[in-house]
Design goal:
This protein has ten helices and 25 strands. It has a five-stranded parallel beta sheet, covered by helices on one side. It has a five-stranded parallel beta sheet with strand order 9-16-10-11-12. Helix 1 runs parallel beside helix 7. The protein is α/β, with parallel strands linked by helices and about 450 residues long. Helices cover about 25% and strands about 30% of the residues. It starts with a strand and ends with a helix. Bound molecules: flavin-adenine dinucleotide (FAD). Flavin-adenine dinucleotide (FAD) binds next to helix 1, helix 2, strand 4 and helix 7.
Length: about 450
């Protein structure tokens, strides 16, 4: 079987490796439009900050046994009737035939309606190429100030990264608080952390225009004006679905390619995975668009397995995410209270403060945990945790994530056999204490 993959990042490479693992006799080919197969896009902020100084270290892997890698091969058209893909490669046009095709072309940054986005000094961060341009500007132009347009997780990570480089950062976000993927209460803690590290934060601002002003850039919106040497636009992403759409593939949530849980598109023998597709949401029981590297890897693996004859279903996302911002880590899984209500649940959210390990052992840290559950059924719907880096926040959100995956009730978290020794936990782990706080507020006495 000839398995051709368009896209050589998280989804495409996961698919290729899985297909080769299951069918070593399959002819697996991965094409990508740049020179960087399977580099960690998620690591770009740390290359920019200098914490990972050598970009080569961002490679998830450098050898791809049994998989043919075609760098600088940009797919221009897919013909599902003849089962061929036309590529532009090194200024030549060529076609490659396939038996099974995977489209894993990722996402592209949203270009908000702001004039001046193409001015020198305005950057996005989405590909290795973007990171080289931004890195060069920092090294050679030595900017002293920057405005980041967008206050989602990439905007927040970039505020941290540029501050690390000694640049004075202003974050200007459209949302009412930084990191709107968590509740306001946590957004406020993040804003305090940013302020404490010298980052100026302006929320609920719509940037309209960027203009040259002498050697600086003037960034303007209603009631907002800021001059800076550098602007980074981090306003979210949208599916890079045009290639598939032009080939007749149906679209679903937010214009992403429509796939079923086997990652099959609406066209026979064409699979799709990663940031270009819609994602099945396990709690909402429908598709949504939630582009993340962790999801792209899983979808790619499922697609790779099925493309060579397997019969696997993508388990679905539960909306798990974690980010480090300076000395804070903030994580979420499942639905926020607002999202749960919008989707018909009788949501109750209870916040509690827990120690990450026994207080008598040195350096115990406070975690704030918000548990969201359904009042009627007691079903766990979501959780959010914020606390200092090093406090095993990701481990704990992952316990909630698995409970969500399993469809557990909040009370059932107390049955989990979690690890315990005083320097790292408590006999009732913080996850369980937070679940008990929820139950205390919601349950009636016997
Ligand atoms: C700065 C940053 C930080 C992030 N941090 C995290 C994080 O901490 N955790 C997390 O889970 N996610 C994170 N993400 C998101 C994550 O990187 C993406 O979800 C993930 O890279 C998606 O993988 P993908 O394979 O679908 O697409 P992409 O990584 O976007 O790759 C697309 C691939 O398709 C190729 N391609 C596109 N068009 C064509 C064409 N026409 N022909 C040939 N090849 C083509 C490209 O060359 C590339 O190889 C971050 C993203 C960014 C930008």
């Amino acid at each position: 079987v000839r398995f051709l993959i368009i896209g050589g990042s998280d989804a495409g490479i996961s698919a290729a490796l899985r297909a080769h693992q299951l069918r070593p006799d399959a002819e697996v080919t991965v094409s990508l439009s740049d020179d960087f197969p399977n580099y960690s896009v998620c690591g770009l902020p740390f290359f920019i900050s200098g914490e990972t100084p050598d970009w080569h270290d961002l490679a998830h892997r450098t050898t791809f046994d049994g998989v043919r890698i075609l760098k600088q091969h940009r797919a221009r058209a897919v013909d599902p009737n003849q089962k061929i893909v036309t590529f532009e490669a090194h200024e030549q046009t060529l076609t490659i035939a396939y038996d099974r095709l995977l489209i894993a072309t990722g996402a592209r940054p949203v270009r908000p309606r702001i004039t001046g986005l193409d001015l020198p000094g305005v950057y996005v961060l989405h590909t290795m190429g973007d990171s080289f341009r931004l890195h060069d500007a920092i090294v050679h132009r030595k900017p002293r100030s920057a405005v980041i347009v967008g206050s989602g997780y990439i905007g927040a990570e970039m505020a941290d990264a540029l501050t690390h480089k000694g640049i004075a950062v202003t974050v200007a976000g459209r949302s009412r608080w930084v990191l709107p993927t968590v509740d306001l209460q946590f957004g406020q803690i993040i804003e305090q952390e940013l302020s404490a590290k010298g980052v100026r934060v302006t929320s609920a601002v719509e940037i309209a225009d960027i203009a040259e002003h002498g050697s600086e850039l003037a960034v303007r919106g209603a009631d907002f004006e800021c001059r800076a040497d550098l602007v980074v636009v981090a306003a979210g992403v949208k599916p890079n679905a045009e290639l598939g759409v032009a080939a007749g593939l149906a679209t679903g949530a937010k214009g992403a390619l429509r796939v079923d849980r086997k990652m099959m598109t609406s066209v026979p023998d064409v699979y799709a995975a990663g940031d270009c597709v819609q994602t099945w949401h396990r709690i909402l029981d429908r598709h949504d668009y939630l582009p993340l590297g962790t999801t792209a890897h899983k979808q790619g693996r499922v697609a790779g397995e099925n493309a060579v004859g397997g019969n696997r279903e993508f388990g679905g996302t539960v909306g798990t995410q974690v980010v480090k911002i300076f000395d804070l880590v903030v994580a979420r899984t499942g639905l926020l209270d607002r999202e749960a209500r919008e989707n018909g649940f009788d949501a109750v959210t209870v916040e509690s403060k827990q120690k990450d390990h026994k207080a008598y052992y040195p350096e115990a840290k406070d975690l704030r945990i918000r548990v969201t559950g359904d009042r009627k059924s007691g079903r766990l719907l979501g959780a959010q945790i914020i606390g200092p880096w090093g406090a095993e926040i990701a481990k704990r959100i992952d316990v909630f994530a698995f409970a969500l995956y399993a469809g557990a009730r909040v009370e059932e978290l107390n049955d989990l056999d979690l690890s315990y020794t005083p320097p790292v936990g408590s006999p009732w782990d913080a996850v369980q204490m937070a679940s008990q706080a929820w139950a205390t507020q919601v349950e009636r006495p016997l």
